[in-house]
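User: Let's play a game. I give you a shape written as tokens, and you guess the letters that built it. Ready? Here's round one.
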């Protein structure tokens, strides 16, 4: 496995949550740059005794509801 994919959601308070789709890795942050650092740190901690993936993909999910009228 060379790539991990994280689903990113933006919280109502403006912060971000990141959840890995294939492993039990979760982190959050107030800003996008902080989130990127936290994801790298969480991945390093999770794979501390294993070979870590070489690519981390952040997939921002935006759920928006519109009125049909």
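Assistant: Ready! My guess for every position:
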């Amino acid at each position: 496995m060379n790539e991990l994919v994280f689903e990113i959601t933006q919280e109502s308070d403006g912060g971000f949550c990141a959840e890995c789709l294939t492993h039990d890795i979760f982190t959050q942050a107030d800003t996008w740059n902080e989130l990127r650092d936290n994801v790298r740190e969480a991945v390093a901690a999770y794979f501390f005794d294993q070979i870590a993936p070489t690519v981390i993909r952040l997939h921002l999910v935006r759920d928006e509801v519109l009125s049909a009228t």
